[in-house]
Design a protein that fits this description.
By secondary structure, this protein is α+β, with helices and mostly antiparallel strands. The protein has one domain: Alpha-Beta Plaits (2-Layer Sandwich). Helices cover 32% and strands 28% of the residues. The protein contains two helices and three strands, in the order βαββα. The chain has helices at 14-25, 53-62; strands at 2-7, 30-36, 41-46. It has a three-stranded antiparallel beta sheet with strand order 1-3-2, covered by helices on one side. A hairpin with a 4-residue loop joins strand 2 and strand 3. The longest helix has 12 residues, at 14-25.
């Protein structure tokens, strides 16, 4: 199991937090996604054989938020 913390921009409320968590949990291989709204970041536990950083970033951007490089 791998863990990554992604910076997430554009979140302003609890709805945003939940939307990002749900988007990340839909990625195959993700077992946990926890968003820190105040810190503007998402911590994700995932199986690196099933999911990549790019897939996680795409899930966040598809949900309407951005992940700065």
């Amino acid at each position: 199991m791998s863990q990554i913390t992604l910076p997430v921009e554009g979140m302003t409320c609890n709805h945003c937090k939940i939307a990002v968590e749900k988007a990340l949990l839909k990625v195959p291989g993700v077992s946990r996604a926890e968003v820190d709204l105040a810190g503007q970041k998402a911590s994700v536990d995932y199986d690196a054989a099933k999911a990549s950083r790019d897939q996680l970033v795409k899930a966040v951007t598809d949900a309407g938020y951005s992940v700065p490089a």
